[in-house]
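Late entry, written up from scratch paper. The run itself happened at the end of the previous shift, but nothing got recorded in the book at the time, so transcribing now.
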Amino acid sequence: MSMAAVWTLILVVSIVIEVMTIDLVSIWFSVGAVVALVSHLLGLNETGQIIIFIIVSLICIIASRPIVKKYLKGNIVRTNLDRVIGKHCLVTETITPDQKGEVKVMGNLWSATSLNNEVITAGQYAEVLSIEGAHVVVKKLEMGVDR
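Output as recorded:
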């Protein structure tokens, strides 16, 4: 098989994979294959073509993937529940490393775990850090201030 056929095959396969995944997994190899094919047509030996393919593909990956991934982040769907993140809450049932407790935040009761498995006793105040499934993760506040 000639090197022109090899580069064409790599080009076609990487484009097909890219079209099927739409996740930027092989587009860089397409660019590398095109440059290697051009270098073949210009008379460069097989070793030089392979080196050019590898270098061009790596440069494309290093230069473009971080930029493109920034714009291809999945559509994060915000919900009304996100508004509790950062709010202060009252611990209504003690939170221990072994057992979820309960907190009241913005008038609603939530199952809760603490950051770093910290014990937070009922009556103390905490801050909601995140929502994980059907419970919130909180950290104890030193001052009892409710928002």
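The longest strand covers residues 125-132.
(Scratch paper discarded after transcription.)
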